[in-house]
Every structure is written in structure tokens, then in C-alpha cells.
Amino acid sequence: MRCVFLYNNNRGENMRIMHLGDLHIGKTINQQSLLHEQSILLNRLIEDIQETSIDVIVIAGDIYDRSIPSREAMKIYETFIYEVNQIMKIPVLVVSGNHDSAERLGYGKAWYKGHELYIGTTIDDALYPVSIDDVDFYLVPYIEPVIARQYFEDDRIRTHHDTYKRIIEQIEQRMNKDRKNIMVSHLFVAGGKTSASEREIIVGTIENVSPNLFNAFDYVMLGHLHTPDAIHDEKVFYSGSIMKYSFDEVYQRKGYRIFDLDQQQVNFVSLSPPRDLQYATGTYEDAIKMKLGVDRNSYLKLELSEMEHINDPMFKLKQVYPYLLELKPVIDHKDIRYQQKEVQHLSHFELVQQFYIDMTESEMDNTQKNLIEQLINESRVLDETD
Predict the structure, then answer these.
(1) How does it assemble (predicted)?
(2) Residue 40: enclosing H or E segment and its boundaries?
(3) Can you give the pTM of this predicted structure?
(4) CA nearest 57: which of 179, 184, 217?
(5) Distance of alpha carbon 37 from alpha carbon 43, whole angstroms
(6) CA–CA separation, 270 vs 243, rounded Å?
(7) 28-55, pLDDT tens digit by residue?
(8) Residue 220, Cβ neighbours under 10 Å: how many?
């Protein structure tokens, strides 16, 4: 059954579209919740929308970070959607991503479309457009090959490329070429740049989708890869995520895109979170003395050398960097080889004594020394008896 969703206004070719993606509401990094930062960023988006003439909002998947989001995550999303869709009366077009539960996200979508909130979660949703003035939007969610194989009853569908190729072929059979055609989807375009948060779910090249599939569309607005610079193409764009979600995203731009159909321009707008993610390397001493050049109130990952003899360095560093999330030692292998040679020339007592100093950063008292010597002597006697 064909379902063409119509929204009538007088904007025509003057349409301005906000392209968002990969909100990942409810994301945690090393057990640190980012809900507070995400809530603030979504409120900033509302302010940007109020100050800018936005006619349509597109969210290209991964609304949530988990298929079963927390109550708090759902409330943050609901508040954002209610504000822009019901209060500001802006049509919102959403597709489900691989992190979302398509069933949960799509619950009630038949009712929502009467309120200009259009949610694409199935192949059926993808095949027919949401029509707004002279623009047809095709909402193509993240689809696993097994789902497409069952839907089309075709065992030849094995990869994501096969999946989206078949879906787009079906779309092209119905497409009105006299109208602007925009595809909204959540997928991995071959050649795109990934980060750790995406590589967790990308296996080999099975997810690769060739950009040649999109030739029939005027624009393709994508989610899935977290950098807006994932691919450089005249009509295929990633929005990127709204904030950094892993430490190898530290140097990526974050924000959203604005498509101005009248001016035929696509602009990127940066967002700065209330608390940034930063990464630094150096020595433990430089870190303690705050000489690493990072904001101590950012979420941090530090890779430090010269802390082999420090007892509980994470605890000590958190006194200086309260939002330190990850600490990785940098080991000098030359120093290790040197230490191994030195150890060979130490007595049993000297080995224990050095271990004690390394762990406690203090010397043993005389009672402790006498006890260690006694234990070593008893052990030596037992060895001789054996």
C-alpha cells in the first residue's frame, strides 16, 4: 500500500533543512554518562533553530545509543522533538540507525505522521516518499541484509550493498524526476573514515555501500559515521555526531549541516559541548604539575610515561583532573631491558626492598627489614634441606 505523506507550505525551493545524525542519547564513556552534556547540546540546537529559518529537520539515525534506552534518555529526546515539532511546528524526518530498536523507535509512527513527525524504520517506509512541497524525502533506515533477504525473498542479497541496491532500485521505479529527491539514511559509504565508536560494529567490508547507488538523488543525508568529513562528495553528506563519543574523535568537527535548496549551498555548523573530550601524552610529573596543555575539567584520556613506581596513579591524577576517564601507561622498553639486567645483580633482600619502595614510595623500617631477612633465611634453610 502506497503511503505518500504530504506537508503543505509555501516554501518551495527556499527550503532550509537541518541535517542531524548520531545523537546517541544515553551514551557513556568508561561508565561516565554524557546525558547532561547531550541535554545541553539539544537545548542549544533549539536555540539555533529559533534564530535560524529552518523548514525541515532531518535526523539520520542512532537517536539512542542503546536499543533499550533509559527513561532519562527517552525524556531528553521527547523534550527536543516536542519543542521543535509541536511548539515550533517544524516537520521532523527520522530514520532508525543500527543502535536504535526499529520497533521501539517506530512505535506510534502512523499517528505521529499526522503531526508532521515522520519515522522510517522499515523497508516499506523507505519505498514511498514524504513529500514536502516540491521535495520528496525517502527515509531509508539501517537495514540488515537478512531483513532484506526475507522481504524481497531473494537469497542473493548478502551484503549491505546488495540490500540498499535493491531498495534504491525499487525507489527509482516510483521516483518523480521532476521533483527534488532526497534520501535520508544510516549506512557506511565505501571509503568513509571510521572512528572507534563505529568500528565496534563494522566487520570487514560487509557494510560498504558504493556511492554510485545514489546517482538518482539530488542529495543524500547520512548518519552512521561520526565525522562530517567522512566522505567528500558533491551530493552525499554525513552530518557527523553532535559531540565526541570516543577519544579518537578528539580532533573531529562536531555539529550539524544546513542545506539551503534555494542557494544550493550546504554549510556545516559547529557545536561545542559544555565539557570537551581531550587527549594528551607526557610524563607523570608533567601531568601532576598540569603541564600537558589540556583543560583539567574536560573528559580526559592520558598516556603517561615514568609512572611505573607510582602507587595508584589514577587516584592521584584524579585529584588534579577530576574528569579523567582513561589512563594508559607508556612503557619504555629500553628501560625495561636495562632494569632486567640490573635485577639479575640484586640480592633477594634488595629485590623485596625495591618492590616495597616502588609500591609504597617509602622505605621499610627496621622491624620490617628484620622480618624480611628472617623469612629469606628460613626459605634458604628449607631449600638446603630439600
Answers:
(1) Heterodimer of SbcC and SbcD.
(2) helix 35-51
(3) 0.81
(4) 184
(5) 10
(6) 10
(7) 999 999 999 999 999 999 999 999 999 9
(8) 23
